[in-house]
Amino acid sequence: MLGFEMSWAKVRKFEALVFFAMFGAVPLFAFRVVSYTQSQLLVRNATHELVQDLHNAKETAVRTGKEVTLKAVHPQTGMFSPSDSRAPYRYLIKSETRANEEVVLPPGLSLTGMVTFSPLGRPLRPSTFIFSVDNRTSTIEIDKEGMVSVP
User: Fold this and answer.
1) Largest CA distance in the chain
2) What distance lies between CA 121 and its chain's CA centroid?
3) What is the separation of C-alpha 96 from the centre of its chain, rounded to a whole number of angstroms?
4) 3-state secondary structure of 80
5) Dihedral sign from CA coordinates of 58, 60, 61, 62
6) How far is it, in rounded angstroms, from Cα 55 to Cα 148?
7) Which of 133, 142, 143 is nearest to 44 (CA)?
8) Nearest CA to 74 among 86, 87, 89, 85?
9) How many CB atoms neighbour CB 23 within 10 A?
10) What are the per-10-residue average pLDDT scores of the chain (151 residues)?
11) Which of 71, 82, 52 lies closest to 127 in space, CA to CA?
12) Distance between CA atoms of 82 and 149, rounded to whole angstroms?
């Protein structure tokens, strides 16, 4: 009728071929899921830590009566230290001219943004911090009243 004959032997061979194809495809999907989850957790945990540090910087500004700045710092580049794509980003928390704390971020995670809190606990201007790794991003916003939010 159709030009080919079905036999149990051919059906079993076809089933085996499909099984081995699925056996090879499942690890590829699992790798993508693990990669996605790892990136998402990395961004989420870093966002949580930065939000805590923003609250601490704001409290420090009020407690000490001095301006406190939290600033993202890009990897070092220059003539004697060439840029390395795996060099970690970091952020500094400093009070006037003295650096209080430096937080080094995990490799692959990038950060942009800067905010300065006045002695009243309000930022000098609204700010935004952006974390990114691969194609996952997280945004942290500080409004003019000093409220920190993660939309």
Assistant:
1) 91
2) 26
3) 28
4) coil
5) positive
6) 8
7) 133
8) 89
9) 9
10) 68 87 79 80 92 94 92 71 67 84 89 94 94 90 92 83
11) 71
12) 36
For residue 17, give Cα distances in angstroms to 20, 22, 30, 66, 136. Answer: 5, 9, 21, 71, 37
d(CA 68, CA 122): 10
Tokens at residue 26, please? 């499942």
Sheet holding 90-95, edge to edge: 98-104, 90-95, 68-73, 114-117
Contact by Cβ (8 Å): 136, 118: no
Residue type at 136 in one-letter notation: R
H, E, C per residue of 10-44: HHHHHHHHHHHHHHHHHHHHHHHHHHHHHHHHHHH
pLDDT, tens digit, 9 for 90 and up, residues 52-71: 999 999 999 999 999 999 99
